[in-house]
Amino acid sequence: MSNLIIIGTQWGDEGKGKIVDLLSSEADTIVRFQGGHNAGHTLVIGDQVFKLSLLPSGIIRKNKIAVIGNGVVLDPWKLLEEIKQLNSRGIKVNSDRLIISENTPLILPFHKDLDLLREQKAGKEKIGTTGRGIGPAYEDKVGRRALRTGDLKDPNEVKRKINIIKAHHDILRAGLDASDIDEEKLFNELMIVGEKINKFIKPVWKFLNEEITKNKNILFEGAQGSMLDVDFGTYPFVTSSSTIAAAAALGSGVAHNKINSVLGITKAYTTRVGEGPMPTELFDSLGQHLAVEGNEKGTVTGRARRCGWFDAPLVRRSCVLNGVTSLALTKIDVLDKLEKIKICIGYRFEKEEHLDFPVSTSLASKLSPIYEEIDGWNTSTVGLEKIDQMPTKAREYIQRIEELTECRVSIISTGPERNQTILINNPFIV
Fold it and tell me: CB of 61 within 8 A of CB of 88?
């Protein structure tokens, strides 16, 4: 039995979906433990491309159980849409394969309204959210007024919760020049959607702990990246949940001492979507090259990703915060055509050097990266499946990343497909 957490070590979009799908072959159950449909995972299986934002990536594999934990905020209409899409492509999602925690908070239509209205009002001070209602839904959760999945089985409880939520949100909506919530319309919509998803709703904490006693392998799938964590990310340009590995226990009901290893996913360079500091961002032709070669557009929003050189102090910080036991390095092939490659080894502000990524967003936005330059390898790494097939300079680059992040690389992704992968060590085994 082994339980593995997979998390992103940068600002998201590191390629977690492919790695989760790859390692799902060794897992019995795959668990989403935070975030919502603001996450986007792209899976390439042969000539088929799957784009998921709510369902765990392991759902694509046969005979695997997918779980949505209590740490997720769930848009039930989006969930049904994803299920319908997969069913239409021959991947059956039923109550034997999907379990939703009974205490998972719901994203409701007015959460999305609030998200969009706030961003519009903020103007230049906007956070750069996906506009999917994620933040407002988490606000209701911590404000102890959230409607949760288990409530859908009790119409009286739904009505009671709607009245509580409406009293709060109508005040917010008035300040944003929006009309009051139509409680009758909302109730009817929830009763309809409840009939469709109630069959999936179970006590996830109990199910997962029973699986552990049966020596089953569980894979915990993170969404977004560590640098978007509400506590340790580039606040306030972060998501509204905890994205680090510790959230897997809180967002699923599995005790932390039952988790064996943590795999951190990192690109061979750095990307970011939305606002906030990014010290290694490139604004020249090199940045454009990375964007084009890496097809850097958000899976969920379609927004262009900002691109820059690999930021070693940032990833090293993430490795410490997450207790990363090994790294998966993705998109190294994007660097194949470059004569010279730079790695950020620290930062400088005025005359002072900083070896760690700072907590202060204000300071982070003023930092200049300190670079180390190495020779590129000028040959294709696409599709390589063994480490000794890697060009010498590419292996030196990987080794340098290991040294600077103080973490070994166990997986190298050399393309979007499952077989375009170099497995050095099995991350399920510490």
Answer: no
> Are 231 and 276 found together in one domain?
no
Q: How many whole angstroms separate alpha carbon 421 and alpha carbon 108? A: 39
And the tokens for 412? Answer: 């190298």
Is the Cβ–Cβ distance between 97 and 198 less than 8 Å? no
Please classify residue 213 by burial: count the beta carbons closer than 10 Å to its beta carbon, then call 0-12 exposed, 13-18 middle and 19+ buried.
Answer: exposed
Q: How far apart are CA 87 and CA 301, in angstroms?
A: 23
| Range list of H helices, 143-256 | 155-175, 183-197, 204-213, 247-250
Q: What is the pLDDT of residue 1?
A: 59
Residues 177 and 222 grouped into a single domain = no
CA angle 230–276–405, rounded 5-degree value: 70
Q: In the block, which residue shows the tokens 């009051």?
A: 180
CATH number of 118's domain: 1.10.300.10
pLDDT value for 47: 77
Q: Return the exposure string of 89-123: e unless at least 16 CB atoms fall within 10 Å of the residue's CB, then b.
A: eebebeeebbbbbbbbbbbbebbbbbbbbbbeeee
**pTM recorded for the entire structure:** 0.92
pLDDT in tens, 51-97: 888 998 888 888 899 999 999 999 999 999 999 999 999 899 999 99
**What are the catalytic residues?**
13, 41
Alpha-carbon gap, residue 279 to 369, rounded angstroms:
6
Identify the three-state secondary structure at position 381: coil
HSE of 278, CA atoms in CB hemisphere, 13 A: 25
pLDDT tens, residue by residue, 96-147 = 999 999 999 999 999 998 888 888 876 776 766 777 899 999 999 999 999 9
How far apart CA 243 and CA 134 sit, in angstroms, is: 13
pLDDT band at 299 (very low <50, low <70, confident <90, very high): low
Expressed as residue numbers, the domain containing 142 is 109-198
- Three-class HEC string of 6-35: EEECCCCCCCHHHHHHHHHHHCCEEEECCE
